[in-house]
Structure formats: structure tokens, C-alpha cells
Amino acid sequence: MIKSKQIQRPSLVLVIDDHEINRDALGIILEESYEVIYAENGLEGLEMMRKYADTLSIVLLDLIMPQMNGFEVMERMQKDDVLQHLPVIVLTAEKDAELQSLQMGAADFITKPFDMPEIILARVGRIIELSEGRNLISAAEHDRMTMLYTRNFFFEYANRLFKYHPEMHLDAVAINIEQFHSINDLNGRDFGDEVLRTLGRAIKDFLAEAEGIGGRFEADQFVIYCAGQPDYRVLLDSFQEKVDCISPNASIHLRMGVKPWREDVEPLLLFDRARAACNMVRGNYQNPLMIYDEEMRNSELRNQKLLNDLRAAVEEKQLTVYYQPKYDIQCSPPRLASAEALIRWKHPELGTISPGKFVPLFEGNGMIGVVDNYVWSEAARQISVWSKKYNFSLPVSVNLSRSDLFDPTLEDRLVKLVKDNGLDFNQIKLEITESAYTDNAQKVLDVIRRIRNLGFEIEMDDFGSGYSSLNMLSDMPVDVLKMDMAFIRNIEKSETDTRLVLLILDIARYLNVSVVAEGVETAGQYNILKDAGCNLVQGYYFSRPLSPEEFEKLIEKELLIEREKNNDAQRTL
């Protein structure tokens, strides 16, 4: 098959000269090698430049012309973002004009009369070649949307500033647009592009007055490497005002993270910390600015250590599973009905770490499954031990994280866990937080239905925290609602909270599911819940979370009560 050759168009040259004889002379020299267009004065030349800006390769510019001379043309070009990159060769008979022409941005000059065609062609060809090379570099160097630096070039120049200008104490600033994908979805991509261009112009305007450089990496990620500012909130507000002007009907919110200069911290790490600070104020519309400080650095180092040490914690059994009892309070005396497995980390260097410190960290980094698997395994083994030791069946609730629900091996692992430990499926209750049902709810519901059909009981944790709607609740495959402890805390003092608790209990009765009230700490709370018909209670009123050895004392006490009740029944007979 014969491949057709791509026809390459000749470079486009604009000649601006008020004398026809000069235009004709240059045309004879250039037209064999280039496509040539002409203008008779500076004003007409500027119009031609704007018209052919995308295809124009070079401008040959006479200096002495009526209406607008060549110096005025170059001055106008330098102020125009589109035209300032066009190379200019000055046409003049005045040798004295050479220095001023070069100072105003001219790439070269050709003296009149045009009596050396080969030199003219050589100079035009060389300048076009250099310009096209610069344009190729510029295309990679600058983000086309905003004309700020792209990531690689930004860090190249930032590293040069850091290395060769240590006297410039430059801060790292990271800026993001909240929910930018939603702005595109709601208002269209053209609107989103205008938001990006507007923020880019605002950054360039700021840098025109301040020392530094700016970049756009991808989507809505903007960065500035600049001299320290006295008040970054003022800078953020100025950017916010610019984007607010785009449309009064659109909700656009910026957030900013700043890592102040440190002489021993290179730009790449500096911006990692600025972005970390920016991410910490995600969704915080009241205070969208975060300055990275020593406390954040220590927290970041601690978090990284925890991430690094998790595997060792599992292998060395630094993680300990505690058990908090749940009591059935609708019988007398209250009966030990089940327990919740709660994880603790006894770190060899950092001491005991509460789950509130490390669970959100592992959830955010996709490592929570390692913790969950450990808890499931330990809880299943412990249930089996107690069953054999005391002939006592105690169901235990374990957490099922949102990431677990999207693991295709979940069902097989849970089934294997039950069978390997000789348990019944209803001896392990799976707690799923209410918030897990929000995104991709249908897929979550499908997974939970399959697990429940295997025989596992499903508990909805933190019920009432505000995520689910009542019409969704009727479709949710759950056996138990765990009432958020925030409702329990004030039921002795707040009539509103008491009514909310009663409402949740009514909903549970309507759905024919049990309710667990967690966080019960006082006799007053216990009595209100008992009178209202709550099934199960968990909290310090009965017991704090206990080690397996401590928990066995509760089991032994429960067995003793059972024996005494049986003996009483026998004596009655």
C-alpha cells in the first residue's frame, strides 16, 4: 500500500513596511521559501498579527512608518499575551536603532537596502527555527489553559530558585477548588475551564507584583512558590473574589494550604506538606486556609510511622481485641447477650493508641482491611474458646468497613472464618456504619443481602447520625439498629433527645428489628431506655471494654446467675 506524504505548508511571514518598493523587494527574496503577507503600517500590521496569530512564524518590521512606528508596534506586542511570543526582525537603515530594537524584544535586524538576499534568507530561517524550538519547549513548559508552568517545569525552576537563590525565602502555596468535578457536571466544561483560566490569571497578576512562580498540575491543582506573605487569608480572599465574579449563580469555593520556607526543606517536600495542609481543610468553608506547622509535621510523622508499623503490629500481636458487653435489659436481672469487639494498639514505642487515632488513618489509606481481618480472626477464635471452655454461646459484633464491602473475596473469607472456628453464622454479627450506605448504595445493599442470606446478622452502627433517609431504611437488610451515642448523652436533660430516642425505637418496632443503645453511662439513662422498650444496652454503666481474661469473669458471673435461677426453679417444684 502506497502511503501518501503529508504536505507541509511553508512558514508564514508578515512584512510590515510603508514603502511598496521595500515590500516588493522582500517578496521577491522570501516568496520562494515562505508564504508572505503584507501590511502597509503598524496598525494594519497589528491587525494582521492578531488575525494570523496561530499560524504566523515571524514578523519583519520597518521602524519608520506613519500612524504607528515600529517601536510602538513592539511595545504593543510586549503587552499582548498572544503576540509577545512572535519573533520580530527589524528593518532599518539606522544602525543606531539596533540597540533599542534588541532591548524592546527584537530577535534580529536587517539593514536597508536589501542587497544581500542570501543573508536575509539565512537570518529569517535561523530566527524561525529558533522560535519554533522555543514554541515546542513552551508547549511543554506551560499549561495551555492558564499559561502557568506545568508540573515538571515548575519543579525544575523551583529547584533552581532554591539552589541558586537561598536568600529568597520562598513559601509553598497549594490551592484547590472545592468539588471541581461537580462544578463541571452542574455548569458544563466550558464554565469549568473559565474558572481555571480566571484563577490562573489571578495568580499571574499576583506574581506580577510578588517574587515567585506559579503552576497548574492537573485538574484544579494550582501551586505558587513565592516570597512569604504577611497574611495568606488576604491572598486567598483576593483569589476568591476573582472567581466569584464569574457567575453570581455558581457556588465556587477555594481552599489553600501553605508550608512556610525552611532552609533545609527542598521544594518537592515543601509542596507535599502544603498540599497536605490544603487537604486538611477540604470541605471547611468557614476556614479554608491551613498553614502547615510543627504540630502538623509531628502528626504527619506519627501517622507515617503507624502506617509503616501496621504489618509488624499484626505479626507481633501488638493489636489487642477488647470486648464490651451488651446486656438485654428487658429481663430481670439484665442478661449478658453479646459483645462488641474493639481494637487497641499497644505500640512498643508510642504506648497504647486508641482506635480513634489509627482507624481513620487506615481507612483513608486503604489499609483498614488489615485491621478488620485481624479483629475478625481474633474474635472468631475467642468465641470458639469461650464456647468450648464454658459451653456458653456469646455472639460478638465486628466492624465491616466500607472498603471490605467492595472486596470480591469478602463472602468466601467470612464463610471460611466461621467454618475454621466451628461457629454458627449467627455467632458473628457484622456492624456497618450508616454512612457506608451513602455512595453506590445499591451495590452495598446487594453485598449485604448476600452476606445476610448466609446467616450473618447485620447491625447498622451509628444509626441516626444523619446519612440515611427513612425511605431507604425500609430497603436496608439489617437485624439491629445501634443508636448513635449522641442521642443517649442528654436524654436525662433534653426532652428533644428523649423524643428522638422514642422515635427511633418506634421505627425499629415497625421494622421488626432490635435496638442497641451505646454509650449508656448512668442509671437515669438506663431507666429511660428500659421503660421505652430498648432491647440492648452497651456502655460504662455496665462495663468498659475488657480484655478476654477480664471478660471471662462476666461469663462466669452469668453462668452462676443461670445456675442459681435453675436451682430456685427446682426448689419451687
Search tags:
573 residues; alpha/beta; Rossmann fold; Alpha-Beta Plaits; TIM Barrel; 3 domains; eight-stranded mixed beta barrel; five-stranded parallel sheet; 21 helices; 48% helix; 19% strand; elongated; disordered N terminus
Explain how this protein is built.
By secondary structure, this protein is an alpha/beta fold. Helix content is 48%, strand content 19%. The protein has helices at 20-30, 42-51, 70-78, 97-103, 117-141, 151-164, 180-187, 189-209, 232-244, 267-280, 294-315, 355-364, 368-390, 402-405, 410-420, 441-454, 470-473, 485-489, 495-511, 523-532, 548-572; strands at 12-16, 35-39, 56-62, 88-92, 108-111, 170-177, 212-216, 222-227, 254-259, 289-291, 319-328, 335-347, 351-353, 396-399, 428-433, 457-463, 480-483, 514-518, 536-538. The strands form 3 sheets. It has an 8-stranded mixed barrel with strand order 11-12-14-15-16-17-18-19, surrounded by 4 helices. A 5-stranded parallel beta sheet has the order 2-1-3-4-5, sandwiched between helices. α7 packs across α8 (189-209). It is elongated, with a radius of gyration of 37 Å. The termini are far apart.
Quick overview:
Helices cover 48% and strands 19% of the residues. It is an alpha/beta fold and 573 residues long.
Note the gap between the termini: 104 Å
Find the CATH topology of the largest domain.
TIM Barrel
CATH architecture of the largest domain: Alpha-Beta Barrel
Strand order of the largest sheet: 11-12-14-15-16-17-18-19
Structural class assignment:
alpha/beta
E-strand count: 19
Low-confidence stretches: 1-8
Shape call: elongated
The number of domains is: 3
Query: Average pLDDT value?
Result: 87
Oligomer: single chain
| Radius of gyration (Å) | 37 Å
How would you sum up the major sheet? 8 strands, mixed, barrel
Total DSSP helices: 21
